[in-house]
Description:
Number of helices: 7
Structural class: alpha+beta
Radius of gyration: 35 Å
Strand content: 5-15%
Shape: elongated
Number of strands: 8
Strand order of the largest sheet: 4-3-5
Helix content: 40-55%
Largest sheet: 3 strands, antiparallel
Number of domains: 3
Amino acid sequence: MDIQQAFYMQRHKAISMGVGWELSLEQWIALWRKSGQLSLRGREKEDYVMGRIDRSLPFAVGNIEIRKQTDNGRYNNDFELKRSSDAGKKGQALRKGQRYYGEVITPLGKFPSARDAALAHGLNHNAIEKRIESENYPEYIRISSEGTVQAKKPTRNYSPRVTSQVRTPLGVFETAKLAASAHDVSPATMGRWLKGGDADFQHVN
């Protein structure tokens, strides 16, 4: 494989993986020649490869290192482990911040934590947490150390259960349960009769 073909292959691979590429052919060749390992580049364990110093940045002058294939593999693994660890810590911090950490403001003032607010209000900790999360209590809020306000959970709207009258051969009843009692059957049986399409047992809208 000639040097130009190697350049385009690496550039294509990087771009296809969503990695930025800011090296020209001339810069790429110059970096290899400066390393003194141009003739040793390849895919075997003892061969050399071009890698990024900071994998969050693109292939660019100042972010390139020529290293052995084995070293590159260890470097990539260490980077992935660190990134996973950092992401885990960040996620854990966010979860804690949303639920347990941050100043709390209530009608009685500002408190260092929800537990302090709970003591001032004579409520338990969970009751304060629920008010912080509920849209029904807009005066209860939590502010994180970053200055962001914890989002409220949307209030669920429950539609009232509508009960209709029931007509049977014995008359009209306010509920299916009363009709079942009059017929000396279980509510489940009355329900089946009402759903069975019998003209003698119907709901009255």
